[in-house]
């Protein structure tokens, strides 16, 4: 997905990631395909929880709800994901996607189950 970590704010439990939507993600209408936008938002929400748990847990999504506010065009994007509420059995996450000028393009929420983070072998 062309993701680059920028920062994590422990107090807000908010991660900031940078993406670059390549031309290959663009539909004939001229914007990024919606499923790929959902992927960007899923990435920022998931990493918010991973960072908030010091990389011990990863969320397993039960649902994701996304709203597209403006067309997402090729080029640089900034995603912000945060933990809204974390319980032992359910966590609530939210994410936002901005263009390079800071305009809000899309937002999402997710309900997820906290699970041990898989370890790559």
Automatic annotation (TrEMBL):
UniProtKB keywords: Hydrolase
Annotated ranges, domain Thioesterase: 30-105
CDD domains registered for this protein in UniProt: PaaI_thioesterase (cd03443)
Entry-linked InterPro entries: HotDog_dom_sf, PAAI_dom, Thioestr_dom
SUPFAM superfamilies named among the record's database cross-references: Thioesterase/thiol ester dehydrase-isomerase
Keyword Hydrolase among UniProt keywords: yes
UniProt-recorded Gene Ontology molecular function terms: acyl-CoA hydrolase activity
The keyword Hydrolase appears for this protein: yes
Pfam families named among the record's database cross-references: 4HBT
NCBIfam families xrefs: unchar_dom_1
Protein name, entry field: Thioesterase domain-containing protein
């Amino acid at each position: 997905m062309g993701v680059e970590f920028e920062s994590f704010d422990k107090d807000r439990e908010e991660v900031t990631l940078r993406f670059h939507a390549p031309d290959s993600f663009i539909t004939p209408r001229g914007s990024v395909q919606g499923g790929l936008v959902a992927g960007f938002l899923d990435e920022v929400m998931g990493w918010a929880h991973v960072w908030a748990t010091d990389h011990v847990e990863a969320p397993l999504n039960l649902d994701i709800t996304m709203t597209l506010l403006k067309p997402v065009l090729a080029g640089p994007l900034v995603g912000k994901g945060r933990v809204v509420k974390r319980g032992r059995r359910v966590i609530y996450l939210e994410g936002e996607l901005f263009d390079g000028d800071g305009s809000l393009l899309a937002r999402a929420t997710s309900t997820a189950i906290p699970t041990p983070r898989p370890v790559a072998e």
